[in-house]
DNA sequence: CAGACTTTACTTTTT
DNA sequence: GTAAAGTCTG
């Protein structure tokens, strides 16, 4: 017999021999960054303060690994958003002319999805299982809740949305239902047994119908690793290096997953900042970052401390704010190589619209000074905090994009349309059938339920999307149902490209939408076209639906497609969505008690601390200027106009750190520097020449 | 039983 | 401004 000898695989050279490297890591990075980027194998924890070049370090880390012989496919880069993953791999690819492009990366959820698509049968699921987003999941809870008639009881039973939240929290925090209910939902503690039963039903339902919600992606990936050693080894074998960004925002499940992914090669680097943990509400636990060294033996802890982003005056405020926390954070940020800068300003405005005018005017002034609009961000706690500003910006024709608002797939008409696609993708998906059927005239909750029972009948071996003889349809809806089925069936049979399928559905759905939303049909209609265009980027329906769920499109970003010569837009963003980004100037609006900190957090010290960290994140986004503003009066439907209080986190900050300012209406008078002037209150003709800008 | 209509309560942040 | 629950009518 002939023998072949395989040459041993070439081991990547460990650091040191930097002669062959194309990048000068020592020159491009500071000492601490360099240490992190070129660290050898084994577990490494990088504790990085805000603005210390964390992203830059990770990018150079990627480049370094690839340059020293790790194949990009064997690097797993786990980030918090897809945007972050894309940006990072693209920037690393730029450094090494494309060589980093094949790094495997994405969110935990997306990464797990890929694993599960491959291995789902081992867990009793079909490979083509569908994904439920939070609202789909809520719909399933709703179906089960009605089925059990819990809503008819004497006392108020939690609604489907709340049930979904409760279930998800218990899963993500790995918490007993009873404890969660007692601690956080005492008003529903009496229903513990019912909710537990319902949760069992929910789990069973998903298994029977090949559905996974967001949490299941983590839970089942974990099961895969725990119950199938061979699979775990195969997966982990392909993770020669695991890199995790924003580790302070991982939950218990994700921390476990990281351990499994690194279980073969043991090369895992996590980067994070406990002071920036802002996802407690979805089960994140900043303590993960402290536990990491205990869980991974031989962890080296590296620190990034020098801040390159912000001026010292901005950092003074950040440091002062974070000191108010119950827990202490050991990092004191100091600025490196930046001028002192202007003091951050605290700007009270008489009302929300004045606040909006202030922001709009300042943004335009900065723009005149040569700061591009997309280097200016307006940050706020919740999506609705910017409504007034959006109106004001529209009125002035200032272009903007908003992150963290309504998503395309959350709009009712898009959900209707997607439900049809889901039913095509998975005829067992009762929640989607429920939505689809109830769009038809003559079908309400009861009829829909009966029809669904028949449609999703397990042993039914009939051709899908066809009517059956042994069912008595009412004449009330039979015509509509026939049309629905013939549309679905034609798509099912024809196997046309996805975009055409969607096109067909749009043509079917449009009249229904016109009827259902006739008052704002014109506003919604363009979205349907966008949706078709979106589908055109995918060839596989299941992929399209998964991407829609895991990588939702900002509704506002769709309307304004960036044509080349359009000016870059002003950035409006929730603080959460602004994580990891930096801007020349930051306006923090609605810095109000009850908003930031949110009214929901007031009773709970831990929750309050998280609100404080949120403020800290907002402040540390700013490079040069920071304006925190709030309206002194506000308006709410029931209460009418009322007086507000500024955020407790900002009201007691010494003047040397946060400069109190005053807004003055009217003509620009004296040169008092602490006063910003506004043009006279609007009305149509009142806008001065300064405001008529060449947009 | 569906659907139009009314009343009521609630509305964070994201994968 | 919306979604869920309640009420009335055909």
Helix and strand layout, with pairings?
Layout: H1 25-28, H2 31-37, E1 43-48, H3 54-67, E2 75-79, H4 82-95, E3 104-107, H5 108-119, E4 130-132, H6 134-147, H7 160-172, H8 177-184, H9 192-208, E5 211-213, H10 214-227, H11 229-237, E6 241-244, H12 252-261, E7 268-272, H13 287-295, E8 300-304, E9 306-307, H14 312-323, E10 334-335, E11 345-349, H15 352-368, E12 376-380, H16 387-396, E13 400-403, H17 412-425, H18 430-438, H19 445-455, H20 478-494, H21 498-516, H22 521-535, H23 541-550, H24 555-559, E14 570-574, E15 583-588, H25 605-619, E16 622-631, E17 633-636, E18 640-643, H26 648-651, E19 659-660, E20 662-665, E21 675-678
Parallel strand pairs: 1-7, 1-8, 2-3, 2-6, 4-5, 6-7, 9-10, 11-16, 11-19, 12-14, 12-15, 13-14, 15-16, 20-21
Antiparallel strand pairs: 17-18
The chain binds a DNA duplex (15 and 10 nucleotides) through residues 80-82, 107-110, 133-134, 151, 159-161, 214-215, 217-218, 278-282, 381-384, 404, 407, 441-447, 474, 476, 549-552, 574-577, 595, 598-601, 610, 614, 637.
């Amino acid at each position: 017999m002939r023998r072949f000898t395989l040459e041993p695989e070439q081991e990547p050279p460990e650091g040191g021999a930097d002669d062959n490297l194309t990048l000068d890591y020592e020159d491009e990075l500071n000492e601490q960054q360099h240490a992190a980027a070129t660290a050898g194998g084994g577990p490494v924890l990088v504790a990085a303060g805000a603005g210390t070049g964390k992203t830059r370090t990770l990018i150079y880390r990627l480049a370094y690994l690839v340059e020293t012989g790790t194949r990009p496919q064997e690097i797993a880069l786990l980030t918090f958003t897809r945007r972050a993953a894309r940006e990072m791999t693209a920037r690393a690819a730029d450094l090494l002319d494309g060589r980093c492009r094949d790094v495997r990366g994405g969110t935990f959820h997306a990464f797990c999805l890929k694993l599960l698509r491959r291995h789902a049968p081992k867990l009793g699921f079909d490979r083509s299982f569908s994904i439920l987003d939070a609202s789909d999941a809520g719909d399933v809870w709703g179906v089960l809740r009605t089925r059990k008639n819990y809503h008819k009881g004497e006392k108020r039973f939690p609604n489907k949305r709340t049930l979904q939240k409760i279930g998800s929290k218990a899963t993500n925090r790995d918490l007993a239902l009873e404890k969660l209910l007692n601690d956080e939902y005492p008003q529903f503690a009496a229903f513990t047994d019912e909710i537990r039963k319902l949760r069992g039903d929910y789990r069973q339902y998903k298994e029977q119908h090949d559905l996974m919600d967001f949490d299941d992606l983590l839970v089942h990936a974990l099961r895969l690793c725990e119950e199938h050693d061979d699979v775990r080894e195969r997966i982990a074998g392909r993770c020669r290096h695991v890199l995790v960004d924003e580790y302070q925002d991982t939950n218990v499940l994700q921390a476990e997953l990281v351990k499994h992914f690194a279980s073969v090669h043991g090369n895992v680097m996590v980067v994070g900042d406990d002071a920036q943990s802002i996802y407690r509400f979805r089960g994140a636990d900043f303590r993960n970052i402290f536990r990491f060294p205990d869980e991974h033996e031989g962890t080296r802890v590296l620190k990034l401390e020098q801040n390159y982003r912000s001026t010292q005056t901005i950092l003074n405020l950040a440091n002062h704010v974070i000191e108010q926390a119950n827990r202490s954070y050991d990092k004191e940020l100091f600025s490196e190589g930046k001028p002192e800068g202007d003091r951050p300003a605290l700007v009270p405005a008489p009302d929300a619209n004045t606040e909006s005018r202030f922001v709009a005017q300042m943004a335009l002034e900065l723009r005149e000074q040569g700061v591009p609009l997309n280097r200016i961000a307006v940050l706020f706690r919740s999506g609705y905090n910017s409504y007034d500003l959006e109106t004001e910006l529209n009125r002035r024709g200032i272009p903007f994009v908003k992150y963290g608002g309504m998503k395309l797939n959350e709009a009712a008409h898009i959900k209707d349309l997607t439900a049809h696609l889901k039913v095509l993708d998975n005829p067992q998906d009762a929640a989607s059938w429920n939505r689809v059927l109830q769009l038809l005239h003559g079908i309400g909750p009861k009829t829909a339920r009966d029809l669904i029972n028949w449609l999703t009948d397990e042993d039914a071996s009939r051709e899908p999307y066809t009517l059956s003889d042994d069912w008595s349809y009412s004449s009330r809806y039979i015509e509509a149902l026939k049309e629905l089925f013939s549309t679905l069936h034609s798509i099912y049979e024809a196997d046309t490209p996805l975009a055409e399928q969607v096109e067909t559905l749009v043509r079917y759905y449009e009249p229904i939408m016109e009827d259902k939303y006739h008052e704002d049909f014109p506003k919604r209609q363009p979205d349907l076209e966008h949706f078709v265009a979106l589908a055109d980027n995918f060839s596989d329906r299941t992929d399209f639906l998964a991407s829609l769920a895991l990588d939702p499109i900002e509704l506002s970003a769709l309307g304004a497609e960036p044509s080349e010569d359009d000016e870059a837009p002003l950035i409006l963003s929730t603080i959460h969505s602004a994580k990891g980004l930096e801007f020349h100037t930051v306006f923090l609006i609605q810095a109000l008690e009850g908003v930031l900190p949110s009214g929901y957090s007031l009773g709970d010290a831990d929750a309050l601390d998280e609100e404080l960290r949120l403020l800290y994140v907002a402040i540390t986004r700013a490079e040069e200027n920071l304006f925190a503003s709030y309206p002194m009066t506000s308006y709410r439907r029931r209460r009418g106009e009322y007086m507000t209080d500024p955020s407790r986190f900002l009201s007691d900050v010494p003047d040397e750190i946060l400069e109190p300012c005053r807004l003055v209406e009217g003509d620009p008078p004296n040169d008092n520097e602490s006063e910003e002037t506004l043009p006279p209150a609007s009305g149509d003709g009142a806008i001065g020449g300064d405001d008529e800008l060449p947009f």
